[in-house]
Design goal:
The structure is a single chain. By secondary structure, this protein is of the alpha+beta class. The chain has three domains: about 10-190 and about 250-275 and about 285-310, no CATH class; about 190-235; about 315-355, no CATH class. The protein has helices at about 25-30, 35-45, 55-65, 70-85, 165-185, 205-215, 240-245, 250-260, 275-300, 310, 315-330, 335-345, 350-355, and strands at about 10-15, 15-20, 50-55, 85-95, 100-105, 110-115, 120-125, 135-140, 145-150, 190-195, 230-235, 305. A hairpin with a 6-residue loop joins β6 and β7 (about 120-125). It comes from Companilactobacillus nodensis DSM 19682 = JCM 14932 = NBRC 107160. This is HK97 family phage portal protein. InterPro entries: Phage/GTA_portal, Portal_HK97.
């Protein structure tokens, strides 16, 4: 048995891979608003990435993977599971000809993983406890899409990003519990009613004075105090306010672990720039998707490429700015710029716009000529 010396979250006994319980579970992690927010956003954007496939059957599987779920929901569930547990599983079903036909999403609890004796292959046992479907033993790796996050064992098993947040989340729980306890116990006392020069009053007298005061204050009535009484309302202790605000530091840790800009969790980073933030986020999506595409190409037939422009540049503004600069610097022509905009996700130019416009391109302007140049009539111009 190999010990979990590196904290990777699993060990191997008799070639069976056993996941440890010393980590934050996916179900528990979704109770943290910051983790829910960042995982939900990443999964939704990754599910929106467009795949280009040169194989008809593979394209059908990717665009219509399941009869029980639509394409977006299916892949979003896969990515959520991968981002939380580090691993996500899909069983590949083929048609009568053996070609990939559809996919079946599997919960991690349905899958047991085994490593071959030489350590180079994985096989899977799959159970179907909630259906009448028969369990399957020794499913070969080629029939299982296994999405993984970072791996330190040659790509066999993914490491959950939540393992890097275990201590932070424990501290956040303790901090919030302390803050809520302080709020609950500290705010039970709403104010102080002082009796001046009353001597040492017994409990019965104090209780009667309190009830009489509260009765006057009911329903917003004006309270009348004599010269020997003083009322002082209590405010929220500043230490409690600081304690509550100190729980926000874990947001930056969560953003760092998942590679998402802090700005997406409401914590503005230094020198924030919308364009740079979008580029950084697009790079994060690209890093996750590259691993997904590599697995899909290995298990499914066909060359698969992806396009994340719709994620990083929703309205095509970045493309428009780049094209505008290239035209201005005379790197490309206006006609080429128009074609680039048409095939991009830019909403500035459409085919319908061109068809409805008599002269879609601007007229060619005549540049000002310097001394000694000839104009269109062949005559020279004087220099200034």
């Amino acid at each position: 048995m190999l010990n979990d010396d590196f904290g990777i979250g699993y060990s191997i006994s008799n070639n069976k891979i056993v996941f440890d319980s010393d980590y934050v579970s996916a179900r528990a992690a979704l109770k943290y608003s910051d983790i829910y927010a960042v995982v939900n956003k990443l999964a939704e954007d990754m599910a929106s990435v467009h795949f280009e496939v040169n194989n008809t059957f593979t394209n059908k599987v990717l665009t219509n993977p399941s009869s029980t779920s639509n394409q977006f929901s299916f892949w979003r569930s896969m990515y959520v599971q991968m981002l939380l547990s580090g691993n996500a599983y899909v069983l590949i079903w083929g048609d009568k000809s053996g070609r990939s036909d559809h996919l079946e999403y599997l919960k991690p609890s349905q899958v047991q993983i085994f490593r071959s004796g030489d350590g180079n292959q994985l096989s899977y046992d799959v159970t179907f406890p909630e259906t009448e479907e028969a369990d399957i033993k020794n499913v070969p790796s080629a029939q299982m899409i296994h999405l993984k996050t970072m791996s330190i064992d040659g790509g066999l098993i993914g490491v959950s990003p939540l393992r890097a947040l275990t201590k932070e989340l424990q501290l956040q729980d303790a901090n919030k519990g302390l803050a809520l306890g302080a709020m609950k116990n500290g705010l039970n006392i709403t104010g102080l009613l002082k009796i001046q020069k009353g001597g040492l009053l017994d409990g019965h007298t104090k209780e009667g004075t309190r009830k009489a005061f509260e009765k006057q204050a009911e329903n917003g009535h004006v309270v009348v105090l004599d010269a020997l009484e003083e009322y002082q309302p209590l405010e929220v202790n500043k230490d409690i306010s600081r304690l509550l605000s100190s729980t926000d530091w874990t947001s930056n840790q969560i953003a760092k672990v998942y590679g998402v800009p802090q700005d997406y969790l409401g914590s503005e980073s230094e020198h924030s720039n919308i364009e740079m933030i979008s580029i950084q986020y697009a790079q994060t999506i690209g890093r996750y998707i590259r691993g997904v595409v590599s697995e899909l190409q290995k298990k499914l037939n066909g060359n698969i490429t992806y396009d994340i422009n719709a994620i990083s540049d929703i309205d095509g503004q970045h493309v428009e700015n780049r094209v505008r600069g290239l035209v201005k610097d005379r790197v490309i022509s206006a006609e080429l710029a128009q074609n680039i905009l048409l095939r991009s996700n830019s909403d500035l130019l459409t085919v319908d716009d061109i068809k409805k416009t008599k002269n879609p391109l601007p007229p060619i302007s005549v540049q000002k000529m310097k001394g000694g140049d000839k104009n269109e009539q062949g005559t020279g111009t004087e220099s200034d």
